[in-house]
Amino acid sequence: MLSRDAQPLALYVHFPWCVRKCPYCDFNSHPLRGEVPETAYVDALIRDLDFELRSFDTALAARGLGSIFMGGGTPSLFSDAAIARLLDAVAARLPMAPDIEVTLEANPGTVDESHFRGYRAAGVNRLSIGVQSMDDAQLRVLGRIHGRDDALRAVDIARRAGFDNLNLDLMFALSRQTPEAAETDLRALIALAPEHVSYYHLTLEPNTAFAAAPPPLPDDDVAWAIHTAGQALLAEAGYAQYEVSAYAKPNRRARHNLSYWTFGDYLGIGAGAHGKIGTGVSGIRRRARHKLPRLFLAGAGSAAALQSDSVVESADLPFEFMMNVLRLHEGFAPQAFVDATGLALDSIEIPLVRAQTLGLIERTPQRIRPSARGRDHLNSLIELFLPDA
Fold first, then answer.
1. How far apart are CA 33 and CA 267, in angstroms?
2. Rounded to an integer, what distance in angstroms lies between the CA atom of residue 185 and that of residue 368?
3. What is the pLDDT at residue 266?
4. Model pLDDT for residues 329-371, shown as the tens digit of each residue
5. What is the per-residue pLDDT for 94?
6. Cβ distance 49 to 90 under 8 Å?
7. 380 alpha-carbon distance from chain centroid
8. Cα gap 349→106, rounded to integer Å
9. Which of 365-384 are b and which e, b meaning 16 or more Cβ less than 10 Å from the residue's Cβ?
10. Coil, strand, or helix at residue 310?
11. N or C: which terminus of the chain has fewer CB atoms within 10 Å of its end residue's CB?
C-alpha cells in the first residue's frame, strides 16, 4: 500500500449554476439568470488551481492526479470547449495517471449530443447522470427539468458519444411511493445498464424548499422495505454494494468517491468547493471556497476566495476518519488509520471495543469493517468516535 504522501490526489471542480433549484437540493447551486459566464468562470477556476498549488509544497503537485470530478450544480450547462480548456489547463499543471478517471455530472434536461462527444474528446471518460426517477409524476414533484424520455435520450446519446462508464442517480422513498412503484422505478433504471448506480433515500435537508413544505413521504417502515428490496434487486442485477448508496459492476467503483471514503487527499476548486490535504508537520488542512459565485469570481486566485481554511485538530481526526471509511462495506486496514491520521490505533481502542461489543463492527488483525447491524445503524456507529463520546 502506498503511503499517503505517495498516493495520487483527487481534484474536485464545482460548477454552481442550475437551470433552477430543485426543492430537495442542499448543494451549492444557484438558478441561472442569463447566459453561463463560461470564459470568466473557467478563467477563475484556473486561477484558483494556481493559488492552491502555490499554497502547498512542490511535493504535492508531484503526486499527480488519479481522478477529477466535475460536479454541481450542472456542469453540463458548460460547453465542451469550456471543459476542454479547463482540462487542458489542469493537465499543464499536474501530471495525470495514465488511467485517470474524469467524471462530469450531467442533467438529462441539459443534454446536447455534440457537447457529449466533445466532453469525451476532451478527456471526460465517466458521466454521472442525475436521473433521480423514471416516473414523470415523481420527477414533477422533485422539481426536475427533465422527464423519463429525456433520461432515456441522455443515456442513448452518452453511449453513442463513446462513454462506456456511466453512473445513474436514482432516489427512493419518494412522495407517496409504494414498494411496488419503487421496484418498477429501479427496474427501469437497471434496464439502461449503467456501470454504476447511486441509489439514494430522499431526505428533507435543512434550508431546502422540501424542509419548509415537505411532500407526503412514506413512513420509516415502508422506506426501509423499499431500501432492502432495492438492495436485493441491484445485487440480482450484478451490482455489488460497496458504500452506503453506491452499487457497481465489477471494476466500476467510483474511484474519485473512493478517495473521499478512504480519507485520501483532494483539491477543491470553484464556488463552494471543499478540499482536504495532509500537510505533514502541520497535519490535515481543510479549505472551503465562498459559495456565492460572485464572491468566488472576485477572489479566485487568492485567499480572498476562501470562506474557511483550518487545520483539523488531532482530537477530531478519529471521527473524521471514521465518518468516511465506515461508509465502505469493506471498512479499513488498521494501518490505514495510522497512515491517514498519524495517530496510534490504541488511541481509538475504547470506541472500537464499544462498537464491537454492540455488534456494530467486525474486527480482525487485518480489517475493521462495519457489520450488517453497523451498516443499518451507521450514524450510531460513527458517533462512538466523537471526541466527547
1. 28
2. 35
3. 96
4. 999 999 999 988 989 999 999 999 999 999 999 999 999 999 9
5. 95
6. yes
7. 22
8. 43
9. eeebbbbeebbebeeebbeb
10. strand
11. N
Angle between helices 317-325 and 334-341 (to 10 degrees): 130
DSSP 328: B
C-alpha dihedral over 103, 105, 108, 113, to 10 degrees?
Answer: -50
pTM of this prediction? 0.96
Identify the residue whose cell numbers are 464556488: 271
- Do residues 86 and 122 make contact, with C-beta atoms less than 8 angstroms apart? no
SS3 of residue 313 by DSSP:
coil
Domain 4-260 in this protein, CATH class: alpha beta
Q: Residue 196 pairs with which residues in a beta bridge?
A: 167, 248
Rounded Cα gap, residues 81 and 96, in angstroms: 20
Distance CA 373, CA 297 (A): 46
CB-CB contact of 37 with 15 (8 Å): no
Q: Output the pLDDT for position 1.
A: 42
C-alpha closest to that of 215 among 178, 171, 174 = 174
Picking from 107, 9, 21, the residue whose alpha carbon sits closest to that of residue 60 is 9
Distance of CA 372 to the CA centre of its chain: 23
Q: What is the pLDDT of residues 51-101, one digit of tens each?
A: 999 988 767 788 899 999 999 999 999 999 999 999 999 999 999 999 999
Main-chain dihedrals φ then ψ at residue 68, nearest 5 degrees? -130, 135
Domain ranges of the chain: 4-260, 315-383
Given a contact cutoff of 8 angstroms between Cβ atoms, the answer to whether 72 and 17 are in contact is yes
Residue 4's pLDDT is what? 56
In angstroms, the CA 300 to CA 271 distance is: 9
Q: Residues near 387 by Cβ (< 8 Å), separated by ≥ 6?
A: 315, 316, 318, 319
Strand spans (E) along 107-206: 126-132, 166-172, 196-201
204: helix, coil or strand?
A: coil
Fold of 315-383: Arc Repressor Mutant, subunit A (1.10.10)
Burial status of residue 29 (CB atoms within 10 A of its CB: 0-12, 13-18, 19 or more): buried
Specify whether the CB–CB gap between 67 and 100 falls below 8 A.
Answer: yes
Residue 282 to residue 299: CA distance in whole angstroms: 25
**CA-CA distance, 243 to 253, in Å (whole number)?**
10
Cβ–Cβ < 8 Å for 61, 248: no
